[in-house]
Each structure stands twice: as C-alpha cells, then as structure tokens.
Write a structure and sequence with these properties.
alpha+beta, five-stranded antiparallel β-sheet, four-stranded antiparallel β-sheet, about 30% helix
C-alpha cells in the first residue's frame, strides 16, 4: 500500500481546492489543470493537496534537517546553530553578525549585523509573532503545519554585510537538472536559470560565474533529494566553501512564474517522468480535484 498518498486526505476538501484554484488564478491568470497536469506549477498544487509523505516535514524543519545533512554529507556542510528555542532570550548574547530564522516557515528571517544590539526588543517581538502564528495554512502547504514552531540563530555567512549567492538545485528522480541562481537578495535581487553544465537558460540575464564547487554541490543535492520524485535543495558557497541551506518541496508554492515561461512545462515533464504521475493518480480518487470557481 502506498502510505505516502492516502486515498482520502481529511483536509483535502472543497475549501482547499477553491483556495488552490483562486491563488493559482491570481498569480498565473489561468486555472490549474489538476486532472491532467503538464506544468511544474500545477504539480506543486497537487503535492500540496495530496502528498502526506511523513518525511517531508522533517526534511523541511530547519533544526531537524541538520543532523541528516551531517550524516549524509559531513558536518562541514552544516551552518552551525548558535541557539535554538521557542522564544528569544531577554538580551542578545551575540556581538557578531547573525541570522534569526523560524524553524517552521519560509521568509521568516532577520539579518542582524550587530548581533541584535540595536533593537533587540523589536526583534524579540517579531520572532514571537512567528512562533504564535501557524504557517502553511492559507496556501495549503501541509508539511509546514507539521513542523514544531520555534526559532534558531546561525552565524551570518555572507561577506561585507551582503547575503551569499543562493544556488537552488532542482532534483528530479535523484538527478539535478537545473540550477536557479539568486544574487543580491536584500538589494537589487535578480536570478537566472542554468543547466548542470552552467549554460545559462534565462534569456538576457546577468551571468554568474560558475561556482568552483559546482560538482560537489550537485552531488550533495542529489544525495539529499534521493528517494523523492522532486525536491529543491538550496546551497551556498561563501568563501569557496559549500554549505547547506534548506530543502523545499513547494518552491514558490507553485505560484512563481518561470523565465523563460516554457520551463514550467519542461520541468513538469521531468517531474511526471520521475514519479509525479502518482500525484495525478491520487487526485482522481475520492474527492474530485477540480474545484468549480
């Protein structure tokens, strides 16, 4: 029996289907073809609705994942955890640049170049809001609702106050097929898409030099994403040293547009060949997956 995709999922109801259709329409100006998907962004919606693989929350938990990365890749790939807990201490204990994150959500972080000395009370209040609020509900991102709420602090790994280049490896069936490169996050943010041989796919984009540890990072991404039909593994290479960032199973919640747009279909085909057809099969059982809008 395929326990990762139960025939009927309690929270896959008409309301969830309606939200999925509405948010997809809002970003893509079309409804997702959930009964016969061809696009990557459509398959993300199906995963949100039907994939209840119990491995996903542990892999996306920013605290728990570090032990797995250390075991598979080695401790040198892990950004150290300076502190973890449910609420920040009354005073900052750090003087070096640090990064504060929630362990259970995305885009919940603060980059504190002074260790938080300038306005620690405001930082504590902001972090407390992250912990009080559930994450993943309104976009139906199930796995985030299964991660314990909490916080962690890591050393800042950028240079001269700038965030490091973010290399996002798309892994289908255990093989890296694309690398999305994000530069100047927090400033003039821009990104481009490359193939594994570092040929640029994004038209007219600014070229990012090939990272010296590209082969090592590809091998690391494939080691971490092995056993999944699709996962995106985010890595960094500050000062020439490759480091693990996080793993995503719902990139952009399936709402971000690709550049070039045809990559949505190309990656959808890769996912279907790697096993995404299971999501389609499960979606045809029990509750119809096409919501009427």
């Amino acid at each position: 029996m395929d326990t990762a995709f139960p025939d009927r999922v309690a929270d896959t109801d008409a309301a969830a289907l309606l939200r999925i259709n509405l948010t997809y329409w809002w970003r893509h100006r079309r409804l997702p073809k959930l009964s016969a998907p061809t696009l990557f962004t459509e398959l993300v919606q199906l995963r949100k609705l039907h994939d209840r693989d119990r491995r996903l929350p542990a892999m996306a938990d920013k605290v728990a994942i570090k032990a797995l990365v250390a075991d598979r890749l080695g401790l040198e790939w892990v950004v150290p955890t300076l502190w973890a807990g449910g609420s920040l201490p009354m005073r900052s204990h750090w003087t070096q640049p640090i990064v504060l994150k929630s362990r259970h959500g995305c885009n919940q972080n603060a980059f504190l170049q002074d260790g938080g000395a300038a306005d620690w009370p405001a930082t504590r209040a902001r972090a407390a809001r992250w912990v009080r609020s559930s994450y993943g509900g309104w976009l139906d991102e199930w796995l985030y609702t299964q991660i314990p709420r909490g916080l962690l602090i890591e050393p800042f790994i950028g240079a001269a106050g700038r965030l490091p280049v973010d290399y996002k490896f798309y892994v289908f069936g255990g093989c890296v097929t694309h690398v999305q490169v994000h530069r100047d996050r927090g400033g003039d943010h821009h990104w481009a898409l490359y193939d594994p041989d570092w040929a640029m796919i994004t038209p007219g984009g600014a070229v990012t030099p090939r990272p010296s540890a590209l082969r090592e990072m590809i091998a690391a991404a494939e080691a971490l994403a092995g056993g999944f039909d699709f996962a995106r593994v985010d890595l960094y290479q500050p000062a020439g040293r490759p480091l693990f960032g996080e793993i995503s199973f719902y990139p952009g919640s399936g709402l971000d547009r690709f550049d070039p747009p045809e990559m949505d279909g190309a990656m959808g085909a890769l996912w279907l060949r790697a096993g995404g057809h299971r999501l389609v099969r499960r979606g045809t059982r029990g509750i119809p997956i096409e919501a009427r809008v």
